[in-house]
Amino acid sequence: MKRALFFSLTLLFALGGCGGGDPTVQTVTAPSLAVAPHALTLTAGAAPVALFAALSGSEAPLTWSLDGPGALSATQGSSVAYAPPADAEATAQATVTVSAGDLSATVTLTLNPVVTEWFVSTNGSDDAAGTQAKPFRTLTHALSVASSGQKVWLADGTYDAEGGEVWPLPVADGVLLEAAHAGGAVLAGPSDATALSLAGGVSIQGVVFKDFERVFAGGPQAFGAVTLEDVSCDSTGLTFSGAMQATLTGVTFKNLDPQDVALALTGAARLQMTGGSITGAGYDADCEGASGVYARHASVAQFEDVAFSQLSQALSATEYGRVSLTGGTLESSGACDTEQSYQMDSGGISLNGTTVTLTTGTAFWLVGAGTTLVLKDTTVTTSGACVLAAEADSIQLTDSTLSQCSTAIDLSSGRATVTGSELIGNATGIKSDEGTSVTLRGTTVHGGEKALLLYGSVDLGTAADLGGNSLSASTRVLEVHDDYATVNAVGNTWLPNEQGSDAQGHYASQSVTGPISGKNFTLSTGIHFEL
């Protein structure tokens, strides 16, 4: 026993002394394999995501495999990219496995279908999934998760602050908002609130906006293309600005209070409205009513088959704004004077195939340099002036009828060109001041007391371009008071058997010089009259 112990100690010392140094302890680490991330939730059609593997303690090659939908960019290497499938009908699972010899690690992938629609109902919950079966409660929440290209459906009901809505509602660019049944979903807000704050374009269909101060808000740079279809605006209007492009189809505006504006355009906004109507709520004690459209700052509004009624100003254009109306009607009734069209500072309005019927007031009022009015195939009836141009650049009437007016055209400045039209049943046909210009071709002017009372330049026809006008009045057809002017009035039909006219109201070619007075024409001193 002693000998054995001595031998063991001797061997231990001998081993410890080998190499002349202290003993060293070596630790061997077992091979390991890790992958990142461990789990992901993705949407079908989303961009590829990178997966990374870390191998230690082994030189074995890394191999990747996929079990489930989607695709891998490679099968070997320290990293790969996983691409989700383009679409998925329901939520699915996929597993990516990376292996190195006997080692492996997995990534669990949850794949959700592409969300294209969200649903909102007054019976829903904002804690729900937002599906048709489990809708959200508020539009506020739905719009907080909706992104470009997605549609938000609104079930019938009223959505207001009491139901949890927080105005204004931010709307992402490119979102679609649609009522399940046109007119059934009502967004109701206080009169000092804005309904929607736009980050870009939006499409809205079948929704009713009620009692808001404004439907839209946003800076000029925020607006994109806005589309509204079968939308109703009750006691509220729309404002478009910047480079906004708006398309409205079948939109109605109603119960607009005095001082309200249905459509306000500024900047370079462009509006196209087809069908629908704009109706005011009537007039206050001061005969003030709502306005239909107000276009300024080079904005352009185009209307087709739209009905305007009970408005102080149906169409207003100023500061290079432009408004055009094809078809449709402008109507106003009651004892209050109204101006259905108002242009100022280079504004322009044109009507084609429109019927304008007023109980009283001026139909078209132009004031400001550069303003223009174009009427084609349009009928205007009012007890006030049909066209009152306090300051204008040009008025053009083609194939139109102005009737029952105190004055069909009252021209204080600018020029009026009337072709193929009828000015009938008016107290005065055309009245013009000094410095103005009036040209008539193929037009019938049957005035009450006077057909034409002119103090400016007059062109009723020349030998090379016959007038072809039919002129008559109960007291006097034409009065011209621009001294030392030349009036061309060749090729017209006047009152018969008056001042040398024949039984058909025609004159042989001749020149006369004022002063001269008669039922067909009265000329001041020095006026040269070519018949």
Report on this structure.
- With 531 residues, the protein is mostly beta strands.
- It has a domain at 34-112: Immunoglobulin-like (Sandwich).
- Helix content is 4%, strand content 48%.
- It is built from two helices and 53 strands.
- The strands form six sheets. The protein has a 24-stranded parallel β-sheet that branches. Strands 9-10-13-16-19-22-25-28-31-34-37-40-43-45-47 form a 15-stranded parallel β-sheet, with helices on one face. A four-stranded antiparallel β-sheet has the order 1-3-6-5, with no helix packed on it.
- Strand 7 (92-100) and strand 8 (103-112) form a beta hairpin.
- The longest helix is centred in the first third of the chain and has 16 residues, at 2-17.
- The chain is elongated, with a radius of gyration of 41 Å.
- The termini are far apart.
According to CATH, the fold-level topology of one domain is Immunoglobulin-like
* SSE-based structural type: mainly beta
Named at the architecture level, the CATH assignment of one domain is Sandwich
pLDDT below 50 for ≥5 consecutive residues: which ranges?
1-21
Main sheet: strands, sense, barrel: 24 strands, parallel
User: What separation lies between the terminal Cα atoms?
Assistant: 159 Å
Name the overall outline: elongated
- If you average the pLDDT, what whole number results? 88
Number of strands: 53
CATH class category name of one domain: Mainly Beta
CATH-defined superfamily of one domain:
Immunoglobulins
How would you sum up this structure in a few lines?
The protein is mainly β and 531 residues long.
